[in-house]
Amino acid sequence: MKKLLVVYAVMLCLFFLYVYDYSRGDQTGSTEASKRPAAGSLSEKYVMVTFQSGIEYWKSGLKGFEDAAQLFNVTVEYRGAAHYDVHEQTTVLEQVIAKKPAGIALSAIDPKALNPVIDKAHEQGIPLVLFDSDAPLSKASTYVGTNNMKAGAEAARRMAEFLDGKGETAIITQPRQYNHQERTKGFEQTIKQKYPNMKVAAVLDGKGDELTSKKEAAKILEKNPSIKGIFTTEANGASGVARAVKAAGLEREVCIIGFDKDKKTLDGIKSGSISATMGQDTWQMGYWSLHMLFFSNHHLKQERPLPAAIDTGITIITKENVAAYYAND
User: Fold this and answer.
1) Which of 47, 63, 131, 296 could form a disulfide with 127 if both were Cys (CB 3.0 to 4.6 A apart)?
2) pTM, 2 dp
C-alpha cells in the first residue's frame, strides 16, 4: 500500500507540474502560449484499443480513461479485437488511425508485429501511448502500466514463502505477449538466483483462456507429480488451474498464484483454492494514458518531456485482504 501511495503522489505531482507550466504560459513574451485553453473540447476524440474486447479485465482501465476524459472535457471511444488475434488487432488499429483521432491508447497483443502500424500513427502526428502491454521498439510516446519484471519477481518470492523455499513449479503464460514475457522472466530469474532448492520445471501456453489453462495444468500435473506450485501470468489462468488441481485431487497440495483481480480469481482466494494474485491497478493505466495523450496533443510535452514509462504498481492479494477488492470492483 505504501508503494501505491508513492506512485499516486508522483503522478499527482507530475500532473500539477504540467498544469502549472501550462497556465503560466511562455514567459518569454509569447501571447499565443498564454491563450491556450486549459481543457480540450468534446470534438476531441481519444480511442482505447485492446484485444479480447469482451473480457472483464478491460472495464476498470476504460473507466479510468473515461474519468480522465471528463476532467479534460474530451470524448473517448473503446475499440478492440474480439479475439486473441494479432491480425485482427492490427486491422482494428488501422481503422482507428484512418479516422485520425486526437490520440490512441493501445494495449499491444504482440511486442513486434504491431510496430509498423504504431509507427504509422506517429508519422501521421497522432499521439499513441501503450498501456498494460508494451511494444518497446515502437515509436509510441510512453508506456503506462505494471513493471512486469518486478511483478514476476514478487510472485516468485511469494511462491517461495508458500513452499518454504523448496519444490518444483510451473508457469502458465501467453508467450508471445511482452508483458507476460516480462512476468515469466522475472519469476524464472528470481527462482534461479535466490532459491536453490526450487526450480521452474515447465513454461506452458495458456492462450489467455481459462479452459486452455486448465488443460495445460492438468497435463503438467499428470506428467510431473513433483509440481508444488503454478504461477499464471494472466487473468483467466488461475481459475482454470484451480479447476485442474481440484480435478486431480490435489487441493491444498499445489500452490496457485495468479495475476489480476477478476471475480473468479478473488473467489478462489476467498475459498482457499488460489493462494494469491498480483493485483494490477488498471484504472490508473487508463487514467494516466489519457493524461499522456492530452499532454501530447496539446503540445505540453514540448515544455516538459513525457516520462518513458509510468509504473502503476501492484498489490498482492491474499485471503487476508481479498474482501476489500470485491468492494473496489
Assistant:
1) 296
2) 0.84
